[in-house]
Amino acid sequence: MVIQELLKWGSEALSGIEYSNPQQETRLILSQLLGVDRSYLYAHGDKEVSEEEKDKFIWIIERRKSGEPLQYILGIQEFMGIDFKVGNGVLIPRGDTELLVEWLIKFIDEEFDDRTYRMLDIGVGSGAISLSTAYHRPKGEILGVDISKEALMIAEENRINLRLDNVRFIESDLFSSIGEEYLQGFDIIASNPPYIPEGNRETLQKEVRMYEPALALFGGEDGLDYYRKITSQARKYLANGGLLIFEIGAGQGPDVARIMEGNGFKAVTVEKDLENRDRIVAGRS
Ligand SMILES: C[S@@+](CC[C@H](N)C(=O)[O-])C[C@H]1O[C@@H](n2cnc3c(N)ncnc32)[C@H](O)[C@@H]1O
Q1: Which residues are bridge partners to 196 per DSSP?
Q2: Is 81 domain-assigned?
Q3: Contact at 8 Å (CB) between 60 and 33?
Q4: Which of 1, 209, 255, 265 has a 20 to 30 A CA-CA distance from 203?
Q5: Phi, psi of 212 (to 5 degrees)
């Protein structure tokens, strides 16, 4: 078969599945498989592919057709201009979370200028928040924790690929393994914790429900368990005036702001995303 025929077959095969962009995904799959960029596919539509490449392409399309997220199949997701390795057991970093990192970068620029900032990232997943902050603002010392060994392995791989020596990851159930030496030791605590209410499990799209780790998704009955747990301990680990910043689910702004204020945080603000949904809550210790 030639490239053009495979592209046509692939987009038709994917056209029936929910939440996909058949043409774009098919081009991405074939370009990665052949190790060429997407423009090559247009220019060489009549080029014959090997039997092996064709079989592999069909196998990938079948997996995608059954609902597996493309990012897990290809093992990669771009976040803040960086390619992150992803895989089963780790949340696929979302575009929404870039807002939190952009907020952090602005905060670091305004408050630290040339000084070193110390940051804790709770629930690192692929390392998206810690590593992209460290990449774009290297003058920091960053500790990232996660309870999932799979997530930590992938985060560490990403850290090594990006050669970021100022980031360290450890296994910890929230603050449980963070030693006394860190009391009042962070200028920033950032977290994108699991925040989907348990009862919403069945309403999630198949790609998320069946393939992404439940440990990264659900935040108890009302979705707010992690905000309560993290906020109640955060001030112990924050320097005076330190920042606690969360990504939140749409509509959780007032509740999370109340939790933070109830725990003594000041200047608590809720930020909306481009679609006007609550997305970030931040406050100062
Ligand atoms: C929503 S994901 C966020 C991943 C990543 N920070 C991102 O933004 O893409 C939440 C992460 O919290 C981790 N997690 C869940 N419970 C935890 C706990 N008790 N202690 C530490 N991490 C936890 C999960 O394993 C998951 O990696």
Answers
A1: 218
A2: no
A3: yes
A4: 255
A5: -90, 150
* Residue nearest atom 12 in ligand 1 by C-alpha distance: 123
**Structure confidence by residue, pLDDT tens digits, 137-172:** 999 999 999 999 999 999 999 999 999 999 999 999
Shared domain check, 277 and 148: yes
Residue 96 lies in a domain: yes
Q: Residue 60: which domain range?
A: 3-67
Residue in the structure block whose two tokens are 């309870």 = 147
CB of 122 closer than 8 Å to CB of 189: yes
Ligand 1, atom 17, residue with closest C-alpha: 147
Query: Tell me: the pLDDT tens digits for 212-223?
Result: 999 999 999 999
Residue 19 lies in a domain: yes
Q: 169 and 217: one domain?
A: yes
CA distance 121 to 142: 8
Which residues does a 6 A CB cutoff place in the pocket of ligand 1? 91, 93, 97, 122-126, 128-129, 145-148, 151, 173-174, 192-194, 215-216
- Closest residue (by CA) to atom 5 of ligand 1? 125
| 103 and 171, same domain (yes or no) | yes
The answer on 270 and 176 residing in a single domain is: yes
Q: Does a structural domain hold residue 79?
A: no
